[in-house]
């Protein structure tokens, strides 16, 4: 069995793909690359997101495997490049400037080539809410060492600001159930924002708002209303065609389906969903993808094409191109949003290990044990990021907690 650790309850009890792994004195555990093994369960203990190959006897009805050999598959390291918003104050160290962006800590050192776009001119101008384009190497400890960076202001274009004003007028509270768009209509012309009704459940709405506001980064909260990069976050529980998913609008509005909230149940798992949608908005994903595609989304009169990241899908307002190109873009967008969402969850005080069961639950609209739900390919991206970045030994040196402070609860 090949898969990812989805739950850990103790050093000797953990689950891979929702299947309980039974290990003991008759089990050999080791590295899949070095093939160095030792008797017993993995040491150190398994953690959510870790990739493993499990050999042994599988009991499908009991969702249990008696493991004879456990191979731990290490994360692959490679050159990394990207473009993202700096979402926390930088930290000065003896080796250089540590900048948090794109879900990483990025080290800008003496050998890093740095370019600035006006009105930014010096390292002191690198603060939260500037944009950074980078090329870097991911070290084994989860740190990125930059070879090249470009620093530029973070702002919406005049056209994007105009569209944000239109999105800010979206008001599901004015849509009755009778006015809600049908599934058949959405399949043909796409979801219509003016046809998505609010879900009338004040306690649920208050809960979602409370969780969402904890996840919005401080730099955004502290921006003046006149700032060209200010986002006005709203978290609105809705029904209709969005009842099982979520849609982030570029102005800061997050439409969250009530069935998705009911399925997730716990605050940390709801935070996993909301932080992802917040990340998509912070990184201007809708407008960045629009720049690569033809067509444009409009509020009310037109439609948004919701990318099916999962089934039923966590909605990102993107545009469809060729299937292969679309899938490649979605993987890249999903990876960035997941990485940034980890940082937001950490800042909000939520257990990152809950992201694995949360996204697994969201990958099916059926009420059933997760062990019976096939792992979605996007979950592999989540697990790889959780492993490579958050279970790395150097993060404590920059004030970063690990993701394993609390065992993941049962899915």
Distance between the amino and carboxyl termini:
20 Å
Helix content: 25-40%
Oligomer: single chain
Largest sheet: 7 strands, mixed
Helix/strand class = alpha+beta
- Tell me the series of helices and strands, N- to C-terminal: EEEEEEEEEEEEEEHHHHEEEHHHEEHHH
The total of beta strands comes to 19
Number of helices: 10
Rg of Cα set: 22 Å
Shape: flat
What is the average of the pLDDT values?
Answer: 82
- What share of residues are in beta strands? 15-25%
State the low-pLDDT regions, or none.
294-322, 393-402, 404-411
Written description of the protein model:
The protein has 10 helices and 19 strands. The chain has helices at 158-167, 183-189, 202-215, 218-222, 258-264, 267-282, 285-290, 323-348, 355-362, 377-390, and strands at 2-8, 13-16, 19-22, 28-31, 37-39, 51-59, 64-73, 79-85, 91-93, 96-101, 104-108, 113-116, 130-138, 144-153, 234-238, 246-248, 253-257, 305-306, 317-318. A hairpin with a 4-residue loop joins strand 1 (2-8) and strand 2. The longest helix has 26 residues, at 323-348. The two termini are 20 Å apart. The model is unreliable at 294-322, 393-402 and 404-411 (pLDDT under 50).
Short description:
The chain has 411 residues and is of the alpha+beta class.
